[in-house]
Amino acid sequence: MNLGYVSQDLAIDDELTGLDNLWLQAGLYHMDRSIRKKRIDEVLELVGLRERAADRVDTYSGGMRKRLDIACGLIHRPGILFLDEPTLGLDIQTRHEIWHYVNRLREEVKMTILLTTHYMDEADTLCRRAAIIDRGELKAIDTPARLKQNIGGGVVVFKFTDDADPHLVEKALEVLREKEFVKEISSNSDDYILLTNDNEEALPKFFAVLERFPLRLQKVTLKMPSLDDVFLYHTGEQLREGSVSKEQIARSRTSMHRLRGQR
Amino acid sequence: MDLNYGLRGTYYVFWREMKRFSSQRLRIMMSVVQPVVWLVLMGNMMTRLTDNPFTAEMLGVDNYLAFMVPGVMIMTSLFSGVYGGISIIWDRRLGFLIKLLSAPIPRYSIALGKMSALVIQTMIQVSIIALLGSIMGVLFITGPGGIIVALLFCGLFSAIMSSISLFLSASVKTPETLFAIINFLTMPLVFTSNALFPTGAMPSWIQLISRFNPITYAVAPVRALVTGGWEFDVIVSGAAILLLMLLFLQGVVYYRFEKGSLL
Fold it and tell me: Most buried residue among A138, A181, B23, B225 by CB atoms closer than 10 A?
């Protein structure tokens, strides 16, 4: 199987041009000279760097550097692309920029991408299947939606208007409690907290029940579990203390500087 | 992995180093300026030395500058070689070494490519020094053929020095440590050699050391080519000793790069 690997550190040469970096990559992967030019054009187009290809990398922004880095990993058309924490330490705009190109790869090239990340929202938006690994042990693997469902559903917090008839409220709650999608209803002063085991359809079902009562809601919010909750559920909440070498720290610091577009 | 892969890997590592070299005009300039300062300062400081018939006899020439040009050529080869391995340390820190290690090329080709680039760079620098020397009146007694052989000696010597440097940088993680080790090694090496002063002027115990000093075997043939003539015994024995040394060191480098960890 043909593998592509884009490391967490920026593995590109800042003193060469973008084009030279790709040419070098193609050479190191023993690509035929005849197809090299065409392939370089393809990946440049894919990561949107065609206009800047002839410029030296130390004039690039952080996002452009990362995109060039990804382009290098793509040039030999791997069947599987490993992206190791592609947005580590990037600002929001640049992260969205990288996400855009990762999605584009998946949709246009139909490439399998194996992405590691510490950002749960990133896993949630980018991945079809997400796995949670804790100290080398696979804790869970499924679609993000199902992972969230499996640790229990969302929470509906609602409150009736002050003029609501307490009698009617009691009745409504009773009907709700009997519904299949409701796990439990508790109250917190005037707020009611409804635990559901059905994420997507909980709210419509909830409204369908209340429609039958002459009650008005003052507020209602639905809080869905995030992948953060899933992660903590599977890995526990205690702090992790890993050991890293001095050299690794120096390297990631250098990498961070370059990702922020500095020299 | 077959030979073809190794050769291509070596070529592309070499290609990258040369690209970087050609984009660093200041570095090329400074690498020539320093030896020129040596020549102009030391060469002129010592001109009166040859007024004394005894020293003139020890130097073997009646012009100290002619004695010094070969010494400075070899010193330049020494320094450009021995500091060359630092690129491994920078590559490691920038994350580029990971790219080279994960590419389908033998690891040894990383060392070989870098060494070849250093050899070519040295020969460029040294030929500029030879040119400047001839402007200052130091002409090769053996003519253009002698210049070519002298350049080959400089290349060979810088190959030896870069082997040592690459071997050290495979383990040393910071430039500061590398510099400290190199300074510790080179200073005594230079001052116990015939590069700047004739060994005849040294006490006998230093003469003994200088007989085991690789610099001596590089300087003697080049000096013969500049001031002596085609002294084949000096040239052949120098070449044989240096080649054996290179072969041994490359064996060590091969073992270090292929079997040990570089990160």
Answer: B225
